[in-house]
């Protein structure tokens, strides 16, 4: 079990409590170290705080999924709104627990996650019309032909397909693809959408601009 929590007191409580429940535990305090440790795939689960120094928990979670790490992830956060929970699950988390929480509930959720085994987030094939995105293999096909995308282009398309038929704002795309703390030009999303459309060929018409707001993927755009 990997615990990622920057508050020393909370980290100590979680570490001691989970060891008493017979979990083998490692604990780290920042997102970069957490990503390095979790990338090994050697943990049964990751308890990941959302508010961390450097990269936040949402970003770490998304990057681990992008790297095909299928370890179950439970996000912990003082942010308890529906939007925050959806944000966490969209980033690839298997569960989301708001602070403050009862320790017994945390343990129960972790036992359920470890019984369930490796996450199924990476097994899905996302599709829309002639376009297919294989999350685990990082392969994109249009009408069966493989399309070579960069890692950034892949993350962009993956998030748009997860939200197919819905409006996705430029702010959402910037946050999910580049991370909340990433320094970026204001037009970077538009630039990468343009790259993506060109590489997708005829299927690029699936990615529609919603003027002044953002983008959406809709099946009806390809004849």
Task: Explain this structure.
It is a single chain. By secondary structure, the chain is an alpha/beta fold. The chain folds into two domains: 2-116, Response regulator (Rossmann fold, 3-Layer(aba) Sandwich), CATH 3.40.50.2300; 125-221, Winged helix-like DNA-binding domain superfamily/Winged helix DNA-binding domain (Arc Repressor Mutant, subunit A), CATH 1.10.10.10. The chain contains eight helices and twelve strands. The chain has helices at 8-20, 31-38, 57-66, 82-90, 103-116, 151-162, 170-178, 188-200, and strands spanning 2-4, 26-28, 46-49, 73-77, 95-98, 125-128, 131-134, 139-142, 145-147, 168-169, 207-210, 214-217. The strands form three sheets. Strands 2-1-3-4-5 form a five-stranded parallel sheet, sandwiched between helices. The protein has a four-stranded antiparallel sheet with strand order 6-7-8-9, with helices on one face. Strand 1, helix 1 (8-20) and strand 2 form a beta-alpha-beta unit. Helix 6 crosses helix 8. The longest helix has 14 residues, at 103-116. It starts with a strand and ends in a 6-residue tail after the last strand.
